[in-house]
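> Could you send the Phosphoinositide phospholipase C prediction when you get a chance?

Sure thing. Input:
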Amino acid sequence: MHDEAGQEQEGKLKSETLSQGDKDNSTPSYSLWDCVYRLFSADRKRVETALEACSLPSSRNDSIPQEDFTPEVYRVFLNNLCPRPEIDNIFSEFGAKSKPYLTVDQMMDFINLKQRDPRLNEILYPPLKQEQVQVLIEKYEPNNSLARKGQISVDGFMRYLSGEENGVVPPEKLDLNEDMSQPLSHYFINSSHNTYLTAGQLAGNSSVEMYRQVLLSGCRCVELDCWKGRTAEEEPVITHGFTMTTEISFKEVIEAIAECAFKTSPFPILLSFENHVDSPKQQAKMAEYCRLIFGDALLMEPLEKYPLESGVPLPSPLDLMYKILVKNKKKSHKSSEGSGKKKLSEQTSNTYSDSSSVFEPSSPGAGEADTESDDDDDEDDCKKSSMDEGTAGSEAMATEEMSNLVNYIQPVKFESFEISKNLAMQINMGMYEYNGKSGYRLKPEFMRRPDKHFDPFTEGIVDGIVANTLSVKVVLPSLACLRIAVYEEGGKFIGHRILPVQAIRPGYHYICLRNERNQPLMLPALFVYIEVKDYVPDTYADVIEALSNPIRYVNLMEQRAKQLAALTLEDEEEVKKEADPGETQSEAPSEARTTPAENGMNHTTSLTPKPPSQALHNQPAPGSVKAPAKTEDLIQSVLTEVEAQTIEELKQQKSFVKLQKKHYKEMKDLVKRHHKKTTDLIKEHTTKYNEIQNDYLRRRAALEKTAKKDSKKKSEPSSPDHGSSTIEQDLAALDAEMTQKSTDLKDKQQQQLLNLRQEQYYSEKYQKREHIKLLIQKLTDVAEECQNNQLKKLKEICEKEKKELKKKMDKKRQEKITEAKSKDKSQMEEEKTEMIRSYIQEVVQYIKRLEEAQSKRQEKLVEKHKEIRQQILDEKPKVN
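Output:
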């Protein structure tokens, strides 16, 4: 184990091994095998070799005295059992090639060049000096004689890499290191939904223990789904309504919260009530339990420094330490008062989602008038949100007692998202592991400013925030996490680690892996090399390179200038052989030689001197016509770049958008129909229950009336006594019959509701599957249609390009004819004839090259079309 958590687990593993020692104060070798062989069951020889390297008995029948099995011996045993040959390579790379140690200077270079963050300011965070490195060597080098000489061996080097100074995440990031004096709404808060459930929300069991475990794990916001208790004591309960989940006592939950509220974190707890208790008496009980059990920890009145007034911010977690706040709907007649209270957050999301981003419909109707009225839309949205959010839409009216508990925060409708299991949950646990497990993470400064709006779907740099890069661009590094997961060859999960991108240290580090619950594993660890750099856009890469190493940059520019000058001299020598020597031409080379030297600092090609040979080539010599030096430039100047339409552009086509809107409305109608069925079923069962209840009350009243008459007869001496016992039996039978009917009706209702929910689930699943098929087909058809149109348009572009090329060639020919008119008539006629002949040859060659370029362009476009069509099929979501 090779960071703080790793060292702790290493000690635990050793303690586990030693705890199996026998009464003779020895650890049987087979105990060590049992402890370690589980991890290396396929390589028994490896364990034996490691024991022999430590001079320990390797036979399973031998014993190991505990005084011989010291922490140092145990470390050697682990190093032999799990060797790291790459550390030897690193050790040799930094100077220990012929010697078994690194000197102080070599160790200093390793720390400053590899382990130090290059983004740090060298004045505020200076590199380590020899004296500081010597202290580290003395700390980690086990050989005192080497340490005194300022030398560190491989063993000491390995100890340093696994030491506390070398963790992949700085220790201060694990402690409370963020500003906790900001308003409450400036933090991400570790929250729990359906806290009471141990399994699914349809038939899972509820448990009070879940509240203890959640709070001990660092959660600061828990949910309480409160329902009316139906026992004789009329005690409110917590459960998931209209399901088969079990019930737990509200009072026991409050006691559990009070017991574990501040054991992990002293910062405030938010109790999110989903109140379905329609009994004022039971709501009063709930409020009374909160006041009595929480006592002074329950914050019912605003703090003096933070009154509920406009413009006054919310109190900070620091101001609310060891306080409990209640979030519940306020009584309706106090809505105006409650509206003045601050809200923690308001978030909305599109409830219609699919498993593929390609087929996720954009809000149908955005920017267009909808056919339905606004009232109908609001009603539909309400019903749909009620379906999506479980029972939150049917909360009971809060009584005066419960309303008085609400302070600073109030519920805001949050349209749920579905990506919350497994990996998403693990990442959430990893995020709140830092900042002292306080349950509060300060939002980035950009998200705390009221004058800015954060778009989580942006792909560009956010408001000047520099994006760190891994293998993908990280837009907001202060919110991003890096997850490193390790699997066996067969796909079995070994462990993972979630690290905040902004806190990762560069250099060589060990990373202790965790399990799915974010608990450290015993031995699994990764040895990694991390390199970080300042983010530089590609546009400024050359400038940054020149600024970071100006001497090298100047040398490269001078070398380039000399090479250009040498090429220029070669061209001039060829020209001298072909052309008559003249005074003007003899002076040109000297100018060409001096110009690059004068402009040696310029790395652009625009200032490169033009060779005189090119000037001569511009004047056609009789009998020989050479192709222009910039043939490809002329062709490129007329070629038009044609890009294939992307999937996003295809999705904006009118026919595809229209189909999306149609599917959205169909899904909306389907949900509406099932909601109506559910409502009708509940009404039907309510009516039946009322009928059974009324019949029961009527029959019971009749029996009680008969009992009264019999009691009067009893007072008469001549009347018999056996009549009263018969009536009591009838009443008992009636109660049993009522209980049986109620139970049967409840079971029937739950089964019918379950069937209805299943029917809705499979209906929506089938509908989505059919929608996806239609969307795939439509997107494929749209792609083929648009691509065919693009190819037709490309043919027209090709003809225009040929005409444009001929125009440019004809213009050059006219310029040459104009230049030839200044010469003798006989010479002009000869040159004119030669120009016409060469012009025809050039046009043929240029058109041929243009057609080749056009053909390549079309092939690339067709290939791109195929890739896009394949992408449409590849991104099809798998619907089981």
